[in-house]
Write a structure and sequence with these properties.
By secondary structure, this protein is α+β, with helices and mostly antiparallel strands. Helices cover 33% and strands 20% of the residues. It is built from 13 helices and 15 strands. The chain starts with 6 loop residues before the first strand and ends with a strand.
Length: 400
């Protein structure tokens, strides 16, 4: 979908640190976290919540009280006169929320919209469905987080299978996967320099209430150190395969957000926040599917659609960020679009810092905008896969 009137003020795309599941955010309701983090992010930036007239919640893992969706968020943040949809598109949720918010501004229905992304994979719900046709009327159960990882009901294969299928089709070697994983870790480490100066531009700490007093999660938790020797010592997860636990992401908890508005308002907000009036114009979004059981291929199709609508070629893209649950993803994207692996994910990626599902893409978008701003502007592409062999993408242009 092509856009011409929608902007994100630089500094108005943020993320929490991500915490590996069963870590410090494991007992925190992700909706409560979203309310607190979003409230502090808006307050720090001087944007009154009531000015935002369209709200969208991106969340893939149900939480207690989630039935009320966006109405819960906006009312608790002082914008109770406004609401919006709850959007879930698996791991492409961030791209879907961005497209919705941008559509509202592009159409003129709203001047300022917000996407609030949040998920907790820890302690995921066990769904119990009543049934009168099972023996003794026993209920049917499903673990909301775990079960989809190991079975796509349309193919009978797991997400790991999709990575192995893609690697086999492309002829990717174990060495290539290990090299890419090590590169992404080194890029992530570079963003920690100078007391995490880069990350502090877009990471909003998480407050964890406790009866003994609040604690704060200010940086990513559970990132495992990656070394060449460590990777070489791992066995493939599947016998005869090439994907190890080192070459795939880990489930996590976290949140993110972004504000979408008009050009004039974006410049005002950016300047007020000390970012010199710089803005990120959303040029296009795109979604696509790959053939069944080849999920890591899908980001290429989504990227091509977004780039075509934006009127930009892959060669004209200055920075790329990806949601890459498997190292295979970036290898395929690089090969198909001709984008050097070294120019992708300058601050690391979900392969390294984890994947809380809904918010993951929004963090990648925040990192994309910050990387473009740091280089003085340019065109950026985000793309990432999602369950069902699908993917979402977005193209932005930062003016400085």
């Amino acid at each position: 979908m092509k856009f011409s009137q929608t902007y994100i003020p630089v500094g108005y795309a943020w993320s929490t640190p991500f915490a590996k599941w069963q870590g410090p955010l494991a007992e925190l309701n992700s909706l409560d976290m979203a309310v607190d983090v979003t409230g502090r992010a808006l307050s720090e930036r001087g944007l009154p919540a009531e000015e935002i007239t369209e709200w969208a919640l991106g969340m893939t893992v149900p939480q207690p009280t989630a039935f009320y969706g966006v109405t819960l968020l906006s009312r608790r943040l002082g914008a109770g006169a406004h609401s919006g949809p709850w959007i879930a598109r698996a791991c492409a949720t961030s791209a879907a929320v961005l497209e919705h918010a941008a559509s509202q501004v592009e159409s003129g229905a709203h001047e300022t919209a917000i996407g609030v992304l949040t998920d907790r994979t820890s302690n995921g719900p066990l769904m119990v469905y009543a049934s009168s046709r099972t023996p003794s009327a026993a209920p049917i159960t499903e673990h909301w987080v775990n079960d989809p990882m190991v079975l796509d009901p349309t193919t009978g294969q797991s997400m790991l299978d999709t990575a192995e299928n893609t690697a086999a089709d492309a002829g990717f070697s174990r060495q290539q996967l290990d090299d890419l994983t090590l590169l992404r870790y080194e890029q992530y480490r570079s963003a920690l320099a100078d007391d995490r100066a880069v990350q502090r531009r877009y990471l909003v700490p998480v407050r964890v209430p406790d009866r003994k007093g609040d604690t704060w999660v200010e940086e990513d938790h559970g990132v495992f150190p990656v070394t060449r020797e460590g990777l070489e010592g791992l066995r493939p997860v599947k016998e005869g395969g090439v994907v190890t636990y080192g070459g795939q992401t880990h489930p996590a908890d976290g949140g993110a957000g972004f504000v979408v508005t008009t050009a004039a308002r974006a410049e005002e907000l950016s300047r007020a926040y000390g970012r010199d009036g710089a803005t990120a114009q959303l040029l296009a979004t795109g979604f696509a599917r790959a053939e069944p059981a080849y999920m890591p291929k899908a980001p290429v199709g989504a990227a091509r659609r977004a780039l075509e609508d934006a009127g930009v070629t892959a060669a004209e893209v200055d920075v790329v960020t990806t949601h890459n649950p498997f190292a295979v993803n970036d290898l395929w994207l690089s090969r198909e679009l001709g984008i050097p692996l070294e120019t992708m994910n300058p601050y690391g990626s979900s392969l390294i810092y984890g994947h809380p599902q809904g918010p993951t893409g929004a963090r990648a978008v925040a990192e994309l905008i910050e990387a473009l701003h740091a280089r003085g502007g340019g065109v950026g592409l985000f793309t990432g896969c999602a369950a069902g062999d699908s993917a979402g993408a977005a193209v932005v242009r930062v003016d400085g």
